[in-house]
Amino acid sequence: MRAWENQTFPLVDYVRDLETIVNMDSFSEDPEGVAAVAAFFRREFEGLGWHVWETQVDEKAGPLLEICNKTPEHYDILFCGHMDTVFPPGTARERPFSIRNGYAYGPGVADMKQGDLGMLYTAKLLPKEFSDRLSIGMLLTPDEEISSRYSLKTLLEVGAKADRILVTEACMLSGDACIERNGKWAFAVEFFGIPAHAGFIFERENASAVEEMAHWILMLASLKNAEKGTTVNIAPVSGGAAQNVVAERARLECEIRFREQAETDRVREAVEKALKTPFVKGARAMLLAEDFKPAWVPSKETVQFAEEIRRLAGELGQDFHWSRRGGLSDANSFAQVCPRVIDGMGPRGQFGHSPQECLDISSIEPCVLLNLALLGKLAGEKG
């Protein structure tokens, strides 16, 4: 029997802790709420003798926690999760943690407080001989749900120190982990026209910002490509002040998701052309509020790493498989600085960002045991 297999998994304790943190509101733009969750994890990890560094990445965000068993200079493996949710303050009171038919429910129960706790319980059950041989990092971020707006620089710096990264977002209820995700380019465009009385359109100089925006909407929609997996969504849109006034201002927001860098280049070229050459004479457009995440295309090393985990899972009597996901995570960014990244390494959950969000309680123990098996393998390789 291997060192970590002779322990009884403390499922009751895990579920109790999950209830505690799910019932803490931690909306991305509520620094105090995220800080309360961070305080829970800081206390727990420090109680295990792990080192915890707390960084205030921005006054608008909660703290970021970098946690390690040894030294932060290099990590044989880094686990990563996020403490924020998409739900505003008060949501936990409206629909607190509950259990029905073997599934846990509540705001953030799958996305991703379950994965954060999986990291903690991996540390709690970690045999000393594994800890002695490995440098293990655990990163808890405050703003993943808003594209790591404030923590990205720190996240990349920490990720670059790791040989391997496991992002503990929930795997799908089907059991699928993830080694490939779409990228995203989101932006806003503001349009400026020349206002005039609508009854004198042919007599007076004018240019409709709304008309210019309408041309942009059609242009952006034409960039969709089902074969390449490039999606375009335009919303919200607004413009104009009154029916009898040619619109002076208008605005749209757009999100484009893509699988390939070449598609990003194609879309940017079309947008830049429209910025330089307005459709409506006298109108102009300005691009602002950009948010970009690169597509995550798995490296050869990532595929090999996933195969290693699949074989380990088989030894434990578990299935391990993976699929592409259209959603984004910090794995998109980590893949730019680390050769081996696997996402969806938390217990099984689904329907995040909705009241149906749930976690399969029966998947908690197998998830942590797989983490320990992997750490055992890496410790063995270190001799």
Describe what this molecule looks like in 3D.
This protein is of the alpha/beta class and 383 residues long. The protein has two domains: 267 residues, Zn peptidases (Aminopeptidase, 3-Layer(aba) Sandwich); 111 residues, 2-Layer Sandwich (Alpha-Beta Plaits). It is 34% helix and 24% strand. It contains eleven helices and 17 strands. It has a six-stranded mixed beta sheet, sandwiched between helices. The chain has a five-stranded mixed beta sheet with strand order 4-5-17-16-8. Strands 11-12-10-13 form a four-stranded antiparallel beta sheet, with helices on one face. Strand 1 and strand 2 form a beta hairpin. Helix 1 crosses helix 4. The longest helix has 19 residues. It is elongated and about 85 Å long. 45% of the residues are buried. The model has no long low-confidence stretch (mean pLDDT 96).
